[in-house]
Amino acid sequence: MVTDKIKRKAAANPEKPPLYSEGLYPNPKKLIAQDTIDINKLKGLVGKSILSIDQFDKDMVLEICKFAALLETTTIAESHPLDGKIIITAFFEPSTRTRLSFESAVLRLDGKIISIPEGQATGVAKGESLSDIGEMFNAYGDLVVVRHTETTAVDELLHNLRLPLINAGNGSGEHPTQAMADWFAILKWKPRLKQDVIAPEDRIHLGILGTPGSMRAVNSFLRLSLLFKAGIRRISIVSDLADPLGPELEESLNRSGIRYDITNDINTVLSDMDVVYMNSIAFLGDSYKTLDSRFKLDAGSNLKEDAVVLHPLARLDELDPTLDGTHHNLYFTQAHGAVFIRQALLISVLNRFDRIPPATPGIVKS
Ligand code: CP
């Protein structure tokens, strides 16, 4: 049956390799066309930990996304940018995409990986503290990527850690590199959203089906979206909770000046949304729960003709596979593009700009 599906896809579009995933794949070159990538700006990340979206301004996120687009469309990887570097991926909570996309990013740039696929494989199983584990990491690698069920885990590791750390999801806290992958997909879809001045008719209605205050990917996505406020005419948050934001996010939204509304009735807003971001896995303390899963989308949903759907995945039944084969599906691009966002961040934090071939078009070094 799988073979039949591949054959059907190949026949429908002979230009595309048949193993290409379904959905919308905007050309990354549109994001960097007639634009340059400012390495000097990216050098601001050298040696830095990436903990929260609040560390970033719009210009830095744009440079990261443009650099990712360059990595996606050129052969910079062939010049071994991470040769000699060891990345520790320390995952104290399950992950499909984040751990594997970080590890793929490293290996494709010729770096090396040592990996903790689950916390029980470490001294945690015997009662060892995270701050002691952080001290050990100093001797074993050059950068640490961490995922943990506890929001406080990153701070505990940082207590003794002297290497840069990338937060790959801390409990109900943040998931900053996911948010960059999300906006990388959106900017490839509509590159004009990178501009500082955007005509009212080109601004988007951003919908969030989920609870930012309890979902780290949604939290980071919303924080990052506020940096691109010039292109947003309205934000609608569709949640089962009466207060899905919490005081800090609410204040950030109020400060942004973007018009926003909160509802528990998807039917009042869905048909006007240009971008729909959804999720149903939330954290309560240090354990998962399902939230907002009654807000479901499928191929028959009342979506705008050119609306796109994003989802950090894993999905439950809120996102029906019948949407996979439609032009609304930006979520596979979102997941695939994460490799290049993570490559851009690793090269920047580890200061491997000298490995980029000097003749690479679009690169500005000073
Ligand atoms: N998007 C995301 O964080 O997925 P994983 O939990 O599979 O890493």
For this entry, give a set of tags.
366 residues; Rossmann fold; 2 domains; binds phosphoric acid mono(formamide)ester
Averaged pLDDT, please? 93
Question: Tally of extended strands?
Answer: 13
Based on CA atoms alone, the radius of gyration comes out at 20 Å
Percent strand equals 15-25%
**CATH homology group of the largest domain:** Aspartate/ornithine carbamoyltransferase
CATH topology of the largest domain: Rossmann fold
List the helices and strands in order. HHEHHEHEHEHEHEHEHEEEEEHE
Distance linking N and C termini: 54 Å
Shape: globular
Task: Tell me what you see in this structure.
- By secondary structure, the chain is an alpha/beta fold.
- It folds into two domains: 18-175 and 337-354, Aspartate/ornithine carbamoyltransferase (Rossmann fold, 3-Layer(aba) Sandwich); 178-335, Aspartate/ornithine carbamoyltransferase (Rossmann fold).
- The chain is built from eleven helices and 13 strands.
- The chain has helices at residues 2-12, 29-32, 39-42, 58-73, 97-108, 130-140, 153-158, 176-189, 216-227, 247-256, 331-349, and strands at 37-38, 86-91, 112-116, 143-148, 165-170, 204-209, 232-238, 260-263, 275-278, 281-284, 287-290, 308-310, 363-364.
- The strands form four sheets. The chain has a five-stranded parallel sheet with strand order 8-7-6-9-12. A four-stranded parallel sheet has the order 3-2-4-5.
- Helix 4 packs across helix 8.
- The mean pLDDT is 93.
- The chain binds phosphoric acid mono(formamide)ester.
- Phosphoric acid mono(formamide)ester (CP) binds at residues 95-98, 169, 175, 178, 217, 312-314.
- The site of phosphoric acid mono(formamide)ester (CP) has 11 residues, from helix 5.
